[in-house]
């Protein structure tokens, strides 16, 4: 088995070593959070276009029933995560960094948890790939690592190398860790299933060296499920360093290669899926389960009950707060995701989404929350920490002074917003906030520019048309005038002829007269 | 208050960085005190006080919060660096003018902490060097080889009134064991070379007069120790010091290889004057230096190269201040041409 597990010889630039705090949540086995009295399911919770609601207020829905249908090329189905009555389809606070309201389906649950399943596809290997992709789309599976990108799209290409992202580099989060420890056998089957869908000969599982128990569990499972390792599994152990779980960073750690700028891992013949996503895909295919729950870490020092729990999509955070017996006296804020890339949940009645891998109930002073910053002293610690080898302080200066073209020149859009620069900044400057602002502004301005240029094109076209029409009119008039003139001239000529003839006649008459005389 | 990610912060701060820099100057300052006496302390105290007072006053005038402004200790660092660069027993007003100018004009006129294109301490130092060349080049000989060692009271009198209780002026104390008035070894070498002596002859003379292995070498070694501390604590990077010391070694090595009689040897360059103070404490000022890794090596190397060139061919015995300021000017350009390769643009 030694040949399966190996430690990487590669590294990526920069990175940081924040305190992990994983022990807060990874000590207990996985539990069930249960069904909350109300579910608040966000229709736009995935990457891409929001799903269109297909139920009406007052409808009875079962767990697993479609409530929002995907629309367009990039979208995902949304399902009821327990049985009950649709109470409302309205704008409600959603789990989004902006704290905005958006279209949600609110379900009053009945506690029966009546479920409906899709038809299981037992022998997935013998089924047409499109059938499997349709199934994954139907089940509303999205990337569970945090990006919430529709998985059916990411399963489409055929590549030789599948990488399973099990790095889980964010502090506090331990759901993938516990999942691997406790469901290793099923996970290995799930990974084999994903491997079969994308036709990959090889599969590397990338995992940080702080999860030795998970590694052992996977090794055992591989030995049991695939003793000859026909799936060509490898477990690549990478050093614990944030953000090793970033897609491009993990690829560099495993292969030593960098995904070419502005391209996808596909360019290297690689596709990466998160370990929990693989399980969701597998269950959707072999058990007909749609995505109505996910494993979520509940942690933070203000929470009394911590650990990892199967959580229904749309579970309100205030209900989780009660279940976790959070000490609200010391609760400072609620963070969804990890402390490095997560965001604060401003309205606790919003519900969890498919990408909610962690909820941190942080007590006062547990997390850095101050926005007070000193001027940049250009120390360059940010550039050392940047996993993309950017120059964060140059980006900062240009973003701050709204010189967006210069920020773009310094490769602003290669920033993965991992937060490593802000973490090391001795002046405590919220650098990532500046980059987000600059990115938004650039996108907005280029949208406006596109609109403006579209309007200009239309205006120019209209001007051109008017000119052409004018020219055509002028031409018509000219032609008409010419015709008239010609006509007039022809008339004139005729008169002249008559006169000449008359003259001649007159002359002839005169001559006749003379000869008579 | 709403904050976006990350909600995580390493436990470092500008204040901690500055305090570590101050701590790292201690060995050098102590050795200087040992060799040059009380004047060193007077300079350090005066410059520190003037630096803090100027910073506070300007912050107040600019309507900034001067308590938090002072607590970053950046002004104190500037004051200490000027204090270390001044000749001991230079009159008090030298320290006051230099420090005030550094904080007010070189730092705050440009916008304060983080915005100054030039190293404030070196701007203050160069102002003094150009304005008061005599006071700025009158270095005491190391006290253990001085003809007339100077005690605390005389030091204080000289510092405050430029004359001691017996009516002696500073010149009296500048004589070494031979009774000759000498400046720094670098100064001596430079003057000697310009008078047609060879470096070997001058080296002999320095050994005879007890300069070698006294004073300056130890001061430089002490600053090197402080600098290594900063390196191990990751307060500074190796790029600039290595670039600068490497360039000093290579440039002076090349020159001595061409003609050893006319040029100061690499080891003398490295361990005299402000070399180590400059390499670890002055050139590494992040605000006015280049910022990219490659750029910092070039920045340091540029300083090192200029230090040797100015020391050998320029009008001043030491050159760190001028070299640093010249490279400060070049820093934005260096940064522009040394951008690191972003992920994914590396050659496969």
| Low confidence ranges of chain A | none
List how many beta strands of chain A DSSP finds.
Answer: 18
Strand order of the largest sheet of chain A: 2-15-14-18-16-17
Biggest sheet features of chain B: none
Keywords:
heterodimer; A: 517 residues; alpha/beta; 6-stranded mixed sheet; 5-stranded parallel sheet; 13 helices; elongated; B: 348 residues; mainly alpha; 17 helices
Topology:
The complex is a heterodimer of chains A (517) and B (348).
Chain A: E1 5-7, E2 31-34, E3 38-42, E4 52-53, E5 60-61, E6 66-69, E7 78-79, E8 84-93, E9 101-109, H1 129-138, H2 151-154, E10 161-165, H3 175-182, H4 184-198, E11 202-208, H5 212-225, E12 233-238, H6 247-255, E13 270-274, H7 275-286, E14 293-299, E15 307-312, H8 317-323, E16 331-336, E17 343-344, E18 358-363, H9 381-385, H10 392-400, H11 404-409, H12 420-424, H13 431-516
Helix pairs in contact in A: 3-5, 4-5, 4-7, 10-13
Chain B: H1 14-36, H2 38-61, H3 66-70, H4 74-85, H5 92-108, H6 120-131, H7 133-137, H8 152-161, H9 170-173, H10 185-194, H11 199-208, H12 216-232, H13 239-258, H14 266-270, H15 275-282, H16 293-313, H17 320-337
What does this protein structure show overall?
- The complex is a heterodimer of chains A (517) and B (348).
- In chain A, 37% of the residues lie in helices and 18% in strands.
- Chain A is built from 13 helices and 18 strands.
- In chain A, a hairpin with an 8-residue loop joins strand 6 and strand 7 (78-79).
- In chain A, helix 10 crosses helix 13.
- The termini of chain A are far apart.
- The mean pLDDT of chain A is 92.
- Chain B is built from 17 helices and no strands.
- In chain B, 53% of the residues are buried.
- Chain B is 64% helix and 0% strand.
- Classes of the chains: A alpha/beta (517), B mainly alpha (348).
- Chains A and B meet through strand 17, helix 9, helix 12 and helix 13 of A and helix 1 of B.
């Amino acid at each position: 088995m030694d040949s399966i597990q190996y430690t990487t010889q590669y590294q990526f630039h920069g990175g940081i070593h924040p305190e992990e705090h994983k022990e807060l949540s990874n000590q207990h086995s996985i539990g069930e959070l249960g069904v909350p009295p109300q579910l608040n399911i966000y229709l736009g919770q995935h990457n891409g276009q929001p799903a269109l609601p297909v139920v009406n207020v007052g409808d009875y829905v079962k767990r697993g029933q479609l409530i929002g249908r995907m629309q367009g090329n990039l979208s995902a189905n949304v399902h009821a995560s327990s049985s009950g009555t649709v109470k409302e389809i309205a704008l409600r606070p959603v789990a989004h960094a902006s704290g905005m309201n958006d279209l949600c389906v609110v379900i009053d649950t009945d506690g029966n948890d009546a479920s409906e399943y899709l038809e299981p596809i037992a022998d997935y290997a013998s089924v047409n790939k499109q059938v499997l992709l349709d199934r994954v789309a139907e089940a509303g599976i999205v990337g569970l690592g945090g990006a919430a990108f529709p998985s059916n799209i990411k399963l489409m290409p055929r590549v030789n190398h599948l990488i399973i992202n099990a790095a889980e580099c964010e502090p506090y989060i331990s759901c993938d860790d516990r999942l691997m420890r406790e469901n290793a056998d099923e996970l290995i089957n799930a990974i084999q299933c994903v491997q079969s869908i994308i036709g990959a000969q090889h599969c590397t599982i990338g995992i940080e060296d702080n999860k030795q128990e998970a590694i052992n569990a996977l090794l055992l499972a591989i030995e049991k499920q695939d003793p000859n390792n026909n799936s060509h599994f490898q477990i690549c152990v990478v050093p614990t360093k944030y953000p090793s779980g970033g897609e491009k960073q993990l690829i560099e750690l495993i292969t030593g290669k960098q995904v070419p700028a502005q391209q996808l891992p596909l360019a290297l013949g690689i596709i990466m899926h998160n370990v929990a996503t693989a399980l969701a895909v597998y269950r959707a295919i072999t058990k007909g389960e749609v995505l109505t729950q996910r494993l979520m870490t509940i942690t933070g020092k203000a929470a009394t009950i911590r650990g990892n729990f199967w959580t229904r999509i749309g579970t309100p955070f205030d209900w989780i707060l009660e279940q976790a017996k959070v000490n609200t006296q010391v609760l400072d804020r609620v963070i969804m995701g990890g402390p490095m890339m997560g965001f604060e949940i401003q309205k606790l009645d919003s519900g969890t989404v498919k990408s909610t891998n962690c909820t941190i109930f942080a007590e006062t002073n547990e997390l850095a929350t101050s926005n007070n910053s000193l001027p940049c002293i250009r120390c360059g610690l940010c550039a050392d920490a940047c996993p993309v080898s950017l120059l964060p302080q140059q980006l900062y200066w240009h973003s701050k002074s709204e010189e967006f073209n210069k920020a773009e020149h310094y490769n602003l859009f290669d920033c993965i917003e991992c937060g490593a620069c802000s973490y090391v900044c001795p002046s405590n400057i919220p650098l990532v906030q500046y980059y987000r602002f600059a990115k938004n502004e650039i996108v907005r301005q280029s949208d406006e520019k596109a609109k403006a240029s579209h309007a200009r094109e239309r205006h120019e076209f209209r001007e051109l048309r008017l000119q052409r029409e004018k020219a055509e009119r002028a031409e018509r008039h000219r032609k008409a005038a010419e015709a008239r003139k010609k006509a007039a001239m022809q008339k004139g000529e005729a008169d002249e002829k008559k006169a000449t003839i008359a003259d001649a006649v007159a002359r002839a008459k005169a001559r006749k007269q003379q000869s008579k005389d | 208050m709403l904050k976006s990610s990350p909600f995580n912060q390493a436990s470092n701060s500008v204040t901690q960085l500055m305090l570590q820099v101050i701590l790292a100057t201690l060995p050098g300052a102590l050795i200087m005190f040992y060799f040059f006496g009380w004047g060193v302390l007077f300079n350090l105290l005066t410059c520190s006080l003037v630096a803090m007072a100027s910073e506070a006053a300007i912050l107040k005038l600019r309507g900034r919060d001067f308590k938090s402004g002072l607590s970053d200790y950046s002004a104190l660092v500037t004051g200490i660096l000027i204090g270390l660069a001044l000749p001991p027993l230079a009159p008090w007003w030298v320290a006051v003018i230099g420090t005030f100018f550094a904080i007010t004009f070189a730092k705050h006129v440009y916008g304060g902490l983080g915005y100054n294109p030039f190293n404030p301490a070196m701007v203050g130092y160069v102002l003094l060097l150009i304005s008061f060349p005599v006071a700025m080049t009158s270095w005491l000989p190391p006290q253990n080889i001085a003809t007339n060692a100077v005690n605390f009271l005389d030091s204080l009198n000289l510092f405050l009134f430029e004359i001691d209780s017996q009516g002696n002026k500073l010149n009296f104390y500048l004589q070494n064991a031979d009774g000759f008035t000498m400046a720094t070894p670098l100064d001596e070498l430079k003057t000697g070379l310009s008078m047609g002596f060879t470096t070997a002859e001058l080296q002999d003379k320095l050994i005879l007069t007890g300069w070698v292995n006294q004073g300056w070498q130890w001061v430089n070694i002490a600053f090197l120790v402080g600098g290594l501390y900063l390196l191990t604590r990751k307060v500074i990077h190796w790029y600039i010091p290595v670039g600068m010391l490497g360039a000093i070694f290579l440039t002076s090595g090349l020159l001595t290889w061409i003609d050893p009689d006319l040029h100061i040897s690499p080891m003398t360059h490295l361990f005299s004057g402000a070399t180590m103070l400059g390499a670890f404490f002055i050139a590494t000022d992040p605000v006015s230096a280049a910022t990219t890794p490659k750029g910092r090596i070039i920045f340091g190397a540029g300083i090192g190269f200029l230090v040797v060139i100015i020391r050998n061919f320029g009008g001043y015995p030491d050159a760190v201040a001028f070299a640093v300021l010249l490279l400060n000017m070049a820093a934005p350009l260096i940064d522009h041409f040394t951008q690191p390769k972003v992920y994914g643009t590396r050659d496969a």
